[in-house]
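To the wet lab folks,

You asked to see what we're planning to order before we commit. Fair enough. Below is the target structure as tokens, and below that is the sequence we designed to fit it. If anything looks off to you, flag it before the synthesis order goes out.
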């Protein structure tokens, strides 16, 4: 067994966790508060729900695609410079969006600014946390991504109040300055994880594309993300259409209960079947949408929906990096997560606009039903991923001889040497 690098599972790792909480709080507090300004922006630009949701969808697509590159950059150069780039992009993008009078320009300034900001903070920092821990990795990642829920809890109600008091343009300026400042503070604690010798690169993309586990997991996340972001964009508008208020508070409740889901499931995952818990979260989120479909304007039922959805969503977010590390190993995790999360970007780009067009053309109930169907498809593909086997990869004999075995808790690759002998290579 290889010697564990000094600093793993240490107090220094928890400092990085705190920095990750701060970074994810800042960026997702902005990104997931869009639902609170959705109706105001739609009315000012005079567009339908599908078109207005493109602000959110383009942003989601960009930050997940950017994660392909920022995750690998953080693996190579460390997370601090990447996070600082995100701070500049977030602040500048929001301030420029406050000046636009053309919706196409708004798509670009908001999408690029917030998208790059989130992409520079989320994947690099979460992957860095994974490198600081072995024994407590799942727990640490659960705490780290709790910043997403805390940001949603604070960001959506705050943005709604700011819009009512100052308008959406001034709101974006305030959010831009605040989020950039928090990211700059988070960069202080963004430290490269310790390693024994040279840092392993993530598996090449061509290797991942020949891994059935990756393909099924990619498809599962794509369908899941098509429905995941619907409440973030439309809950406030859903209640406005029924002459009710309180939509931003429901989004905040989703954020608060997602923290519970992240921490609770992140803590118990080491004692239970990780893949089974992950599947339960996907199933529970789809089931929660049934409550929303039948709730109408009943606020008590909508609160129940928000609690159930938030808890399931929080568990899914907490377990996703841990499941990825379990399947593909913790080394080079930023690159693997970045590649995997492009599926969430595609789902986020497609889902909200299609849902918005369905709402305008038919009604909310039909649109929510489509979101439920997406969760069902996601669960089916996830079950296929859990049954798939690791690939057999041809590599030169010298390469297989040089790689030392790692901890038995990590995942393994079956490798065929040039002589035809099968060897087990652990990562």
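Sequence we intend to order:
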């Amino acid at each position: 067994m290889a010697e564990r690098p000094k600093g793993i599972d240490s107090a220094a790792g928890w400092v990085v966790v705190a920095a990750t909480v701060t970074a994810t709080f800042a960026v997702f507090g902005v990104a997931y508060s869009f639902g609170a300004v959705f109706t105001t922006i739609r009315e000012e630009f005079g567009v339908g729900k599908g078109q207005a949701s493109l602000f959110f969808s383009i942003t989601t697509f960009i930050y997940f695609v950017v994660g392909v590159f920022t995750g690998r950059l953080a693996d190579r150069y460390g997370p601090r410079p990447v996070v600082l780039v995100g701070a500049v992009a977030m602040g500048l993008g929001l301030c420029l969006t406050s000046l636009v009078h053309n919706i196409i320009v708004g798509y670009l300034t908001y999408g690029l600014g917030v998208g790059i900001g989130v992409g520079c903070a989320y994947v690099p920092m979460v992957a860095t946390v994974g490198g600081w821990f072995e024994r407590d990795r799942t727990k640490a990642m659960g705490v780290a991504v709790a910043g997403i829920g805390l940001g949603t809890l604070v960001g959506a109600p705050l943005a709604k109040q700011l819009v009512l008091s100052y308008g959406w343009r001034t709101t974006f300026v305030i959010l831009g300055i605040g989020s950039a400042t928090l990211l700059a503070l988070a960069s202080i604690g963004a430290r490269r994880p310790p390693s024994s010798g040279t840092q392993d690169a993530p598996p090449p993309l061509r290797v991942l594309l020949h891994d059935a586990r990756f393909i099924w997991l990619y498809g599962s996340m794509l369908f899941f993300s098509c429905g995941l972001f619907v409440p973030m964009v439309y809950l406030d508008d859903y209640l406005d259409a029924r002459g009710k208020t309180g939509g931003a508070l429901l989004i905040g409740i989703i954020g608060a209960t997602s923290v519970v889901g992240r921490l609770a499931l992140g803590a118990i995952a080491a004692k239970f079947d990780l893949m089974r818990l992950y599947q339960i979260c996907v199933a529970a989120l789809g089931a929660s949408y049934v409550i929303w479909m039948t709730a109408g304007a009943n606020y008590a039922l909508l609160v129940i929906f928000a609690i159930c959805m938030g808890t399931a969503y929080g568990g899914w977010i907490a377990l996703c990096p841990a499941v990825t590390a379990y399947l593909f190993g913790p080394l080079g995790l930023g690159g693997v997560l970045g590649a995997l999360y492009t599926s969430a970007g595609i789902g986020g780009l497609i889902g909200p606009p299609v849902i918005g067009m369905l709402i305008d053309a038919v009604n909310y109930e039909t649109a929510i039903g489509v979101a439920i169907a997406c969760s069902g498809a996601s669960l089916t593909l996830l079950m296929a991923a859990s049954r798939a086997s690791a690939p057999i990869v041809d590599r030169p004999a010298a390469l297989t001889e040089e790689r030392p075995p790692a901890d038995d808790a990590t995942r393994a690759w079956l490798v065929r040497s040039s002589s035809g002998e099968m060897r087990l290579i652990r990562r």
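Structural context that might help your review: The chain has a mean pLDDT of 83. Residues 95 and 174 are 8 Å apart (CA to CA).

Thanks,
Computational group
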